[in-house]
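Quick check before the chapter quiz. The format below is the same one you will see on the exam, so make sure you can read both the input and the output lines.
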Amino acid sequence: MSEAELTEAELNEAAAFAGRLADEAGAVALRYYRQPVTVETKADASPVTRADREAERAMRTLIESEYPSDGIVGEEHGRERDGASRQWVLDPIDGTRSFVTGVPLFGTLIALAVDGVPLVGVIDQPVTRDRWVGVAGAPTTLNGAPVRTRACPAIAAATVSTTGEEFLEGPGELEAFSRVRAAAGAFRRVPDCYGYAMLASGFVDLVVEAGLKSWDLAALRPVIEGAGGVVTDWNGKPLDLGSDGRIAAAGDAACHAQALDTLDWRG
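Here is the expected output.
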């Protein structure tokens, strides 16, 4: 199955279902938001709470009920039906560090990928009730209204963001990002999925990160591309479920090209 084999009606159906998944995850997150929760540390040193696990479980239950033959890739509960063409990719709380400190800069990430290519993506912020929805071939919306990235062809005028430079841990990653930061007009730390949402809405021009997993990145491609932006790995390859986790997203194609030149990555 390919993008060409998914009809507009099928894509819209998947987007509507992704909205239902976001509703389920958001309801769980709000029950625990700004409440005492125990924070555990996973093997990769990232934090996790009961809210993360319960929110993903709620989404998985709905998928199993409605699309039992589809695969699932989730941050907290692993994989189901790896060989399925259609894969729902879930990050119940992207930005757990923000969540546990009571800061509404986290979100739920939901994507439908077909043969590894994300075609539907949702970034949902349940506290502010903001939901970005991207569907291949259609304009990205925020709460039902189309949004666009802003024109910023010169990296020297761009506002660049990243979750935190401490997450650029691989050999040469921090140095590559530092070149982009030095070339950009301004730098702001906008954490996790919120930076990409702000890019899609035209408030951030460039986001550069590394170390992302499939559940961190799958929803980003439909949202950003549908808003007129460009998102690839550091070598310029479009994102898919096999991407290496190094992300360069820009609202303007010219700015994106300059960012890749400045990263000068040969990974």
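If your answer matched, good. The longest helix spans residues 8-32.
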